[in-house]
Amino acid sequence: MCRLFGLHAGSRPVRATFWLLDAPDSLSRQSRKEPDGAGIGTFEAGGGARVSKRPLAAWEDHAFAREARQLASTTFLAHVRYASTGAHTLANTHPFEQDGRLFAHNGAFHGLDRLDARLAELGVAGLVQGQTDSERLFALITAESRLAGGDVAEGIGRAVGWVAVELPVLALNLIVTTATDLWALRYPATHPLFILERDPSAEPAPAAPLDARSHRIHSRSTELSGARSVLFATEPMDHNPGWRPLEPGELVHVGPDLAVTCTVPFPDQPAHPLTLADLDPSAAASQTS
């Protein structure tokens, strides 16, 4: 199963290190199980997006590890790919960038021919450079956000709402980031997605550096030792009891001041739910732990 990680550090860029090759629980070691690509998206001081990604497993690519050692940004988005749709190419590797936003997805859905027709109808087919269902979903979100005057939450709502009604869906877990805002969605209940609102000032023990690790991704930031932050991950990344799973259909927005807004705009189940048995063997394997 693909892994997602998102971090909002507030209005001030902070430095975070992503260990990809030599940490005991590093992204690279576990990418031997998710071997189809890895990427990290950040934003520069001026707000421009920067994506470091490779279509190789992270453990095979030392250059990728060097690039990921020290990254500074207000928001971070990391992804390890286990491909369900599309070849192992750079164009198919997450995160994707459109309209200055970054996007990563964990899940699968069918009906790409119908989605392609919808994208053509909306005039955004040219945004899709690769073969994945993920990039197509992002293009639909981008199109709907444009039609909503740049309202990303509305764009996500319209795009996911259309897919949930029109296409067979297994999972649509996703994270969208800009330099100032982050949106995360879990839909439906197929795959987990967790949130942690981290406030070191409320912890009884002395503040420690952010050290978030799972069986897939490991991120560390000394600068966040005494500062608030909001994290999203496919699984809890430390023993903090504040981690909670998003509800199925829950859309979370984190603003520049780290204010968290939660809504549940989607039905419990898509109109045409998929199961693992509906996928071909390789796609089904990509959707399991």
UniProtKB/TrEMBL annotation:
Composition bias, kind Gly residues: at what positions? Answer: 38-48
The record, for Pfam families, names: GATase_4 (PF13230)
Q: Residues annotated as region Disordered?
A: 28-48, 270-289
For whether the record's keyword set contains Hydrolase, the answer is yes
Q: Name the Enzyme Commission number(s) assigned to this protein.
A: 3.5.1.118
Hydrolase: present as a keyword of the record? yes
The record's GO molecular-function terms, alphabetically, read: hydrolase activity
The Glutamine amidotransferase type-2 domain covers which part of the protein? 2-257
Q: Which keywords does UniProt give here?
A: Glutamine amidotransferase, Hydrolase
Q: Which InterPro entries does UniProt cross-reference here?
A: EgtC-like (IPR026869), GATase_2_dom (IPR017932), Ntn_hydrolases_N (IPR029055)
Supply the name of the protein. Answer: Glutamine amidotransferase
